[in-house]
Amino acid sequence: MNAALENLKTRGLFAQCSDADALSRIMDAGPITFYIGIDPTGSSAHIGHMVPFFAFKHLNNAGHKGIALMGAGTARIGDPSFRSETRKILSYEELDRNAECIRAQLDHFIGFDGKIAFTVNNADWLGNLNYIDFLREIGVHFSVNRMLSMEAYRTRLETGLSFIEFNYQLLQSYDFLELYRRFGNILQIGGDDQWGNILAGVDLIRRMDGGEAFALTFPLVTTSDGNKMGKTLKGALYLDPAITTPYEFFQYWRNVQDADVRRFLLMFTFLDVAEIDKLTASGTNPNDAKERLGWEVTSLIHGNEEADKAMAGARAAFGGGGDKSAMPQVVLSKAMFESGYNVVDLFCDSGLASSKSEGRRLVEQGGAFISAPDGELKAASDVNTLIKTDRLDGEGELILRAGKKRYCLVKVN
Predict the structure, then answer these.
(1) SS3 of residue 200 by DSSP
(2) Which of the listed residues 29, 101, 225, 409 has the most CB atoms within 10 Å of its CB?
């Protein structure tokens, strides 16, 4: 197998390929052009979107030309694949703004040079399509029976599939054809949930232009306990620091389960496999590997400086030194502490509990911790406990912890 494809397999970035042997021979003969699409349905990409872009960068590093397709055109419809309900329809202006935000995030990660890594927007060719001509030229090549046999559509038929969504596969296939014609693109890569859509594009290129094209997908990443990777208590792990702070981003990786560390180091970093093997060898401390994972991924998304700050904040929270100013923070009134701050209210006001009932459960179950002036975290076991100024340290601050992993630095004014 071609070395670049073999590397993707080693990294866990290979689920299915339409013809791995043929694709491997072509890649051995010289660089190819490939693409990955992302629909700008939100203002920020999240870590789930990034799995194909790690593969993008690996292929780029091997000398292959990559196209990041901003789907401001396809997002006008919305991909129904494996969704239980129709996506919210956004205005064209909002989709264009989202596309630019995501393009900037990907540029930071990929480094678009306009030569072997660049972006295009499918709104450029989808925005003004003549519907009748499109149906005559493209729609004629699609079998409704075949489309309905695909799992993504079968699932939606149970809850309701709108006609506008049913067109999505045609548009995505047309994207592949356009990129094939414009740039000689022969490979589309994406998550395994896109397998049917990508194969439809491969088939369209064969039918209309007699060309050879390929599909390559990656596994949909879950944690070792079967949960969707990248999900936090606040929702998805976004790249936008205004939504997911670099500290929260780092903490997600720092707190992954031991069983996931090696797999995530392979998928979400560019460390050599030998170094990853050394970090995760039997007898090593898994927390060291987790910290390295957290730093590497945070650095790739937010830069070295933010990764350093996030790691320092995490070390401070866990009592290992470091700069606690990088921790999530809240400013509360000193007067509340002077009169006695009820522990339940304190955890609610800090954001570590979403309601008083949740705050009470946290305290009653022994999951609410408050730092003493010397920095030691002590559990609060009584919901009537009042936290006063004598719990503040010399800087007028204290640290709260909810459960084992969520922290907040409280400052008073």
Answers:
(1) helix
(2) 409
Phi/psi at 344 (nearest 5 deg)? Answer: -65, -45
Percent of the chain at pLDDT exceeding 70:
90
Determine contact, residues 200/142, Cβ cutoff 8 Å.
Answer: yes
Compute the distance between CA of residue 342 and CA of residue 387 in angstroms, rounded to an integer. 6
| Domains of the chain by start residue, with CATH | 3-218 (3.40.50.620), 231-324 (1.10.240.10), 329-412 (3.10.290.10)
pLDDT in tens, 194-246: 898 899 999 999 999 999 999 999 998 888 877 777 766 567 899 999 999 89
The secondary structure of 301-345 as a DSSP string is HH-HHHHHHHHHHHHHHTTS-S-GGGS-EEEE-HHHHHH-EEHHH
Q: Give the position of tokens 């002590």.
A: 378
- Residue 186 CA to residue 198 CA, distance in Å, equals 11
Read off the tokens for 307. 């990764």
The crossing angle, in degrees rounded to 10, of helices 3-10 and 47-61 is: 150
Quick check: 189 and 52 in contact, CB under 8 A?
Answer: yes
